Amino acid sequence: MANFGCRVRKFDVLFNVETLDTSCLCKSFERQGIPCRHVVWVWEANLIQKIPEAYVLNRWSIMACKKPVFDLEGNVLEQCVQAVDRKRFLNDLWLDLESQSRIFDGSSGSVSSKAQDIELLIGDSVPTKILIKLPKVSKNKGTGVHVHGSGSDKRLKSDKKKDVEQSQKKKRLCKGCKKMGYHDIHNCPEKEK
Q: How far apart are CA 48 and CA 54, in angstroms?
């Protein structure tokens, strides 16, 4: 069920346990190619750990770029076919060259030779001991200790806000000036310093 303000919409999900075929009345998968949250909820409720293969479309996978591209009439675009063929040819050529070089060198790319290749590429040797220090602890701007009533507020209050808070307090009788106010003998304004 989906709740939109005062309107509640109900979506029925049909699920086949044997074939894992799932369909929802919201038709999100049919329209967008993405399983909706209703379908995903049903899968989770039935303890399905992996999305069924029928619901993983090629356009969301690595295979999306490896297939030929068609125009609106269904004709294969020639430049795309040529690009795919060229990539396939270059990949095969590279694998062939790599296997030939391993046979010629007499090694199968050991770890030490790879480390030497990296050292030659960088122009420096790999350090034996790597020291990584912890980053400096920084205080984020605007965060402070805001414990209400403890006087540790770092936020500055406006005069208006202070007056409103002051007026909400109960008035007390000051023993120093014998007047009702928001002070006592300890902080009396008429007290001599």
A: 14
Beta bridge partners of 173: 180
Residue burial 114-148, b: 16+ Cβ < 10 Å; e: rest: eeeeeeeeeeeeeeeeeeeeeeeeeeeeeeeeeee
What pTM was computed for the model?
0.33
Q: Residue 36 burial by CB count (10 A; 0-12/13-18/19+): exposed, middle or buried?
A: buried
Q: Which residues pair with 42 in a beta bridge?
A: none
Give CA–CA dist 47/54, Å, rounded.
17
Q: Phi-psi region for residue 74, left (φ > 0), alpha (ψ -120 to 50) or beta?
A: left
Residues in a beta bridge with 7: 4
H or E, element range at 74: none
What pLDDT, in 10s, does the model give residues 87-109? 878 888 888 888 887 777 665 55
> How many Cβ atoms are within 10 Å of 33's Cβ, its own excluded?
13
Q: How many beta carbons lie within 10 A of that of residue 39, not counting itself?
A: 23
